[in-house]
Amino acid sequence: KEKKNNHECEKMGGACKYQNTHGCVILPGECKSRKKHCCRV
Q1: From its phi and psi, is residue 11 left (phi > 0), alpha (psi between -120 and 50) or beta?
Q2: How many CA atoms lie less than 13 Å away from 23 in the CB half-sphere?
Q3: Over the chain (41 residues), what is each successive 10-residue block's mean pLDDT?
Q4: Which end of the chain is more exposed for a tag (fewer CB within 10 A), N or C?
């Protein structure tokens, strides 16, 4: 079940990473953790 919330991000080719991850290009996808953004990978 918990995978479902990251699916939108992964569909965009991103991965959910913490906001302070170096070099994170934020995508508009949803992540299950509010502390994380959808980052391009």
Answers
A1: alpha
A2: 1
A3: 75 93 92 93 85
A4: N
pTM of the predicted structure, to 2 decimals: 0.74
With tokens 């502390």, the residue in question is 35
Q: Which residues pair with 27 in a beta bridge?
A: 38
The string of DSSP letters for 1-41 reads: -GGGGGHHHHHTTEEEEETT-TT--EES---SSTTEEEEE-
The CA distances from residue 22 to 1, 3, 4, 13, 32, in Å, are 29, 24, 25, 18, 20
Q: Does domain 2-40 have CATH number 2.40.30?
A: no
